[in-house]
Batch of 4 targets.
Target 1
Amino acid sequence: SGSSAAAPLPEEDCMKLNPSFLGIALSSLLAIDLWASKRLGVCAGEGSAWGSARPLMKVIEVSGHGIPWLLGTFYGLCQSDSSAAREVLLNLLFALLLDLVLVAVVKGLVKRRRPTHNKMDMFVTISVDKYSFPSGHATRAALVCRFVLHHLVLAVPLRVLVVLWALIVGISRVMLGRHNVTDVLFGLLLGYALYSVVEYCWLSPLSAPALFALW
């Protein structure tokens, strides 16, 4: 016959024209994440909607940074004269170091760029901090929060303040424009789960006598 049948599309072209439901869902989630993060970045700059609150948000940023926590924990470990306190502080130091390594590895693997509205004026950064996923501050806040609640005897108001601090650190990351919403949510979940690893690998005079001999 004079008419010829249309040639079938290659399989890969069919896949592009008929994206999977999972692909559509992930693309939609990414779009919502970017939109919400942009709208919530109200302290991303001095001229932003809540630009006057930016200095306060940066103080909260420092409160969740790794360096103050590492230095403070190490100082407390050196000054402590109680074996029970040394055990807790040594495990907190171990938890903080494990958190830094894990977050750096995940950031290096995912390599998600920070939001475009972020001002790169963060407190003490390293090369991997140019990446956004996950939020190291959120991971650390959740980890420290769970650690403190389990190993320090605190009155109920103080326990509530510790939880609020962890949540505020996470929220401040989005408000400052440092991270997208999903960066913070995953960071909080990762930090919460990381505490279980620390508990499982708990360092004690029986399991790690060499470490305790140093102190």
Target 2
Amino acid sequence: QMADPFLYDTGERSHYGCLGHEVQIEYLKAYVCRPSFFTDKAVIVVHDVFGWQFPDIRYIVDLMAGHGYITICPDFFKGTEPWKSTDHWVDFPDWMKNHDPMKVDKEADVVLKYLKEQCGAKKIGIVGFSWGGMAVHHLMLKNPQLTAGVSLYGIVRDSEERYSLLNPTFFIFGEKDHTISLDQIFLLEDKLKEYCKVPYKIKVYPGQVHGFAQLKPEDMKPEDKPYIEEARRDMIDWIKMFV
């Protein structure tokens, strides 16, 4: 029996009134939020298994836009059903086969083209959570158009080619994440030291579980709040440093 990998409760969520709007880009729907002033800097947000409409991910999009970036979260599931908190974990491996975070290259290209041609973006970063964190790790190995990346609790596991990052990448983990062991994190660190030619950073946040960094303020537990806020600040600082 597989334990529920998402230890934060996804059922009870406060309502979130979004600041952005939805657009259609070729065959993809996307949620976009822009800052109030002109900028040529953009950030792609890659959602987790709960998809592009999940309130927590839209909150992150709006947060990034508030820091001065054209921010976009495309539907990387291309209109198919996201995972739901009522689904059964025994079905998760099958669901994942049809939602492979390493098969996001085409969608990333569509969104990059849109950001450059329609939004005037010159520098584009990417941040992703869980499923999206895996997608970010993958894309930072493959797509040189992405100026910097932040992967939150998601890593490419089964490839020896996963350490030659093309541009600066920051990996954020929770210490109590039982989907990513500390051993895996130490291995990643050792291999990046050996192979990685660009700036990278790995940080583990004490006592935090999988999915901790995307909670909205009203859903945070008081003891986790400082770590959640620190992780978000760190994510934004990394993007600001390079994008």
Target 3
Amino acid sequence: THNLPPGLEYLNQLDQIIIHQQVELLEAILGTESSSKYEIKNPLGQRVYFAVEENGCFDRKLCSPLRAFTIRIADNAGREVIRVIRPLRCNSCCFPCFLQELEVQSPPGTIAGYVVQNWDPFLPKFTIQNQSKEDVLKIIGPCATCGCFEDVDFEVKALNEMTTIGKISKYWSGFVNDVFTNTANFGIQVPVDLDVRIKAVMIGACFLIDLMFFENSLDGL
């Protein structure tokens, strides 16, 4: 473990990561948007990281799920260990030349890998890349991501797209929660021996999937 990026030793023995979005009281009542905050937990429900999204109010109101952001992920000692950077990109299958791309750094300033959206007319598809931009894994979502009364699974696959090795799941949390807040509960399941840097990139992929497919609030009602 001495070769691991500082702070990622927490991920070394994990095959499941839980991400829980925290909802501010004012946001829950009024439907207003504030900077997203997340707890990242192990399967026992113990918090291992805390994440905060950084962007301007202008970005959140004007660009909403398309917005650029930086998410800083810190351990329980307050040390930033992962940084997720998303530039402003297109979110339409009609414009495949400017699709989503996410950069994950660990430690901050050092590339751990990338999440790259792949064009497909029917399915959400992404490629997980390492720090050298070499393809490592694929993520393939369902045709419909509404997830009414059930979980929504994005399958993590080998590069041949035939072998499923894990998944990113959006857990259905109930009608009231889904309609009146934009709170998110996700689970990431990957092989325990997966490179911890790629596990960190998977966390970034989870944030991207959340904003692209599940961002909602009272603003749109």
Target 4
Amino acid sequence: SFIMNMYLFVYDLTQFCGHSWIFTNMIIRFMTFGKDSLADTFHSIGLVMRLCQLLSVLEILHILIGIDKSHLLPRFLQITERIIVLFVVINSQEEVQGKYVVCVLFFLWNLLDVVRYTYNMLARMGIYYLPLTWLNFSLCIPLYPLSVLAKGFAICVSLPYFESFGTYSIQLPFPFTFSIYFPYVLKMYLLVLFAGMCFIIQNLFSERMAHLGTGNIKNKRS
């Protein structure tokens, strides 16, 4: 309906503004302060980044209620990956926040999202630019695996701090005789992360073929 389409347009516009601000801020800070800006990335833009990622949870709801026709599982995996790495790994360990990998991760996320939300906004209005369509469905194929590698590296960097501080590790009281050692949980999640990457990459190639096939390109040109 028109109302739902307008709602989705406003949602995409909000996300576009947030990610554009983050991306522009990162570029300006790097051009101004050089490498010194990398270690301060999280403290400078972390709040807006967290707000944008929390807002992205709505995309799962959009798919569930049927106003977004995207596939649920790939989108769910992509969103939860970011939520876990951002809030559980990076946000909880101040020592990790100053690592260069955080800057790399934020750069990749925002580059992908600026393109994606720009494409989505125009698509809501029935506007399709072939270069933008090609960029939206092609850029994610090399950049998504790079972002997964960055997520994995961020998790590996955080492990010594989770081991030292015991963050999220739980010793259950009697009569229970086991404990939850969070570094082991993160190591198991690494396997899930890379297994999910294979599934999502396959889905990205399928979406690219569906939108950039010869027939679809001709239809959008006409």
